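DM from R.C. (forwarded with permission)

"hey, sorry to bug you on a friday — could you get me a structure for this? deadline for the figure draft is monday and I only need the backbone to look sensible"
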Amino acid sequence: MFAGYWRAPDKTAEDLRPDGFFVTGDVATMDSEGRIAIVGRAKDVIISGGFNVYPKEVELVLDAVPGVRESAVVGAPHADLGEGVVAVLVAEAEPLAQAVLDAALARALGRHKHPRRFVWVAALPRNAMGKIAKSELRALVADIYSTPPPA
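My reply, with the result:
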């Protein structure tokens, strides 16, 4: 695929195995017929109460809700769960009631995957490549579980 990262031998050693295979960081599942589906990125996995939550799975549900322009899901420190799931959302017009989001999530996902906090923003931060800057979002919500949820 490639010989390594430019002037980054430590990163090359981390991601390129001696047998030539490149570690992408993608997390995938394979069904009984051998079809593979990418479900997320290993570095983005949220471990909440001992359960793995793949942000992409939650984002797909939230993005399908009418009135949600886009979403990003990250983990934030949580005293009891280790990490709590947080959804950062951009509205089409006005932020939706949490009950609307909860209902959509309940139809599609197990309860342990549901965000316990929702944050509405004007736009999601992006890096130079146009990808959502999840590290910025994690910093934004780092203390969200240290205060009671809004009434």
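R.C.: lifesaver. The first helix runs from residue 9 to 15.
me: no worries. The chain has two domains: 1-42, 45-145.
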